[in-house]
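So, can you check these tokens?
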Amino acid sequence: MPDRESAPVEVGEHYSVEIEDLGSEGDGVARIGSFVVFVPDADIGDRVDIRIERVGGNHATATVVEGD
């Protein structure tokens, strides 16, 4: 849709991110570019691999993906 900006991430995509802050609910906050991604069960300074689970208009929610 030309009148609507799309998010730079999609459900199912994987990223490696650093948790920069904590949200009001205690979730970790990472950024992909300037786009905010909330990551439950992550703390400031953690470097984690994530999978995007839900995408909203101005943020996404992801889960931590455990390594091999």
Notes: The chain has a mean pLDDT of 91. The beta strands are 14-18, 21-22, 28-32, 35-39, 47-55, 59-64.
